[in-house]
Design goal:
By secondary structure, the chain is of the alpha/beta class. It has helices spanning 22-33, 95-101, 109-116, 141-153, 184-196, 212-215, 235-246; strands at residues 11-15, 40-41, 53-59, 69-74, 86-91, 118-121, 128-132, 158-162, 200-204. It has a six-stranded mixed β-sheet. Strands 7-8-9 form a three-stranded parallel β-sheet. Mean pLDDT is 78; it is low at 1-9. InterPro entries: GH (IPR017853), HEXDC-like (IPR038901).
Length: 247
């Protein structure tokens, strides 16, 4: 699970994965191994002397924090007076630290500490984003994983996948035909990945309207009220909706 990156003259965040709480390890590993700036390391590699800045991140539980609250502080027990570019940080959140890491290189040590010592609480129980997976090319599973990592770093704890017909339905080969929809296993994989990042994955489907991509096929003409809407108050439509809800 280690990353073997160094950035000459750049910036590096170091995380001791062995000391990360077990429930966070999978998510932290996913973020570290796929960081866009390639500046997070899960171990201190042999070329660390080439990296200009070094921040050691330590994650710990704080039972005093309320739900939705996070806290970050520079570890007061670590003496950094000899090298102000080497800082030990106690972390309850990661996204803001990555943001601060892009700003501090020209700042004095006092300003750096002020960026890294804070406590905040989210105003919302759920902070969600909806991704449209029904227009043009459907996002591949790997692209959904990437978006989930970004969402986790921004404190988003819910992702909704808007799928009109872009998912697999047993016995209906024309449902989502040529649309690049998700298989059941892909949806399971995405749900597991989201859970590791602290995100609730919510699949969003349509059951009456916005189904023009399905109703264009002759096999589904019997269900049409209009080109986009299912015919209501009809037993066959109810049976189709039941199959949709079982997916």
């Amino acid at each position: 699970m280690d990353t073997d990156m160094t950035i000459s003259g750049g910036f590096n965040l170091l995380i001791d994965l062995a000391n990360v709480p077990a429930e966070l390890q999978q998510g932290i590993s996913a973020i570290a191994n796929n960081c866009p700036q390639n500046n997070i390391s899960l171990r201190e590699n042999d070329e660390m002397h080439e990296v200009e800045f070094h921040w050691l991140l330590r994650f710990e539980k704080d039972l005093g924090l309320q739900q939705g609250e996070c806290s970050v502080m520079v570890d007061p027990l670590i003496d950094t007076s000899a090298d102000q570019k080497r800082i030990a940080i106690v972390v309850k959140s990661l996204g803001r630290i990555l943001g601060a890491s892009r700003q501090i290189q020209s700042l004095d040590p006092e300003k750096t500490h002020s960026l890294l010592c804070y406590t905040e609480k989210c105003c919302y129980e759920n902070l969600a984003v909806m991704i449209d997976c029904s227009r043009g090319g459907v996002l591949k599973q790997s692209s959904v994983f990437t978006l989930m990592r970004y969402c986790a770093l921004m404190g988003i704890n819910m992702m909704q996948l808007y799928t009109e017909d872009t998912y697999e339905m047993e016995g209906e080969t024309f449902f989502g035909y040529l649309r690049g929809g998700y298989t059941r296993q892909e949806l399971v994989n995405m749900d597991d990945y989201a859970d590791a990042l602290g995100i609730e994955l919510v699949p969003c489907i349509q059951t009456l309207g916005h189904l023009g991509q399905v109703l264009q096929w002759p096999k589904f003409h019997v269900y049409r009220d209009t080109n986009e809407v299912l015919l209501s108050n009809w037993d066959e439509t109810c049976n189709l909706i039941e199959k949709v809800n079982e997916c």
